[in-house]
Write a structure and sequence with these properties.
The protein has 182 residues and is mainly alpha-helical. The chain has a domain at 53-171. The protein contains 6 helices and no strands. The protein has helices at 3-14, 41-49, 53-76, 84-111, 117-138, 144-171. The longest helix has 28 residues, at 84-111. The radius of gyration is 20 Å and the shape is elongated. The model is unreliable at 1-34 (pLDDT under 50).
């Protein structure tokens, strides 16, 4: 096998993006213009316009909140859509992806030593609300089988993301205390 064949065989491996902080590509970051398929165009614009991870954390948490509310709305509808299962599962997957992206922004902010105390508190408080909602949904319902596996994944992902947020909050150095001149 020649050099060209080896290069062509390895090319797909080089094209796989690695998450920041993992593997050899930890010094690289994702391009700013990549649109996530679970974000609307206006949401993607807001993320792109948010220059710093703290702003992005707040946005991703609000988008996750939106997806979870849409899921609850869709579940409560009396005249369900034709592709109900697909809609419910895609909303839960989008919720999880938004929260995962918020957790990724926490890791990025910590790497760049950016203050994220405020956004962490928001993520922790909203995350507890999210877990309450997810646990209630996990208790079952008339169409529980349609989204059971996706819901279990969402619960697991939320727990992991909240654990990351809690760990980051504990590891942050406290803010400097301003002392009054004596």
């Amino acid at each position: 096998m020649g050099l060209r064949a080896i290069t062509l065989a390895l090319l797909p491996l080089l094209a796989v993006p690695l998450a920041p902080g993992r593997g050899m590509a930890s010094s690289f970051s994702y391009p700013q213009n990549v649109k996530k398929d679970y974000l609307t165009d206006s949401e993607a614009d807001k993320i792109r316009d948010a220059a710093l991870p703290p702003d992005r954390i707040k946005l991703f948490v609000s988008f996750a909140d939106d997806r979870l509310k849409k899921f609850q709305y869709e579940l409560a509808r009396t005249t369900p859509e034709a592709r109900r299962s697909e809609i419910l599962n895609s909303l839960l997957n989008a919720y999880s992806a938004c929260l995962d992206d918020a957790a990724d922004q926490i890791a990025l902010a910590r790497e760049k030593q950016i203050d994220i105390r405020g956004p962490l508190k928001i993520m922790q408080s909203k995350g507890k609300e999210f877990m309450d909602v997810l646990q209630k949904l996990n208790a079952g319902g008339p169409e529980y089988d349609l989204y059971k596996e996706t819901l279990e994944d969402a619960i697991e992902g939320t727990q992991e993301d909240l654990a990351d947020a809690d760990k980051a909050a504990k590891e942050l150095t406290p803010a400097p205390v301003r002392r009054k001149p004596s």
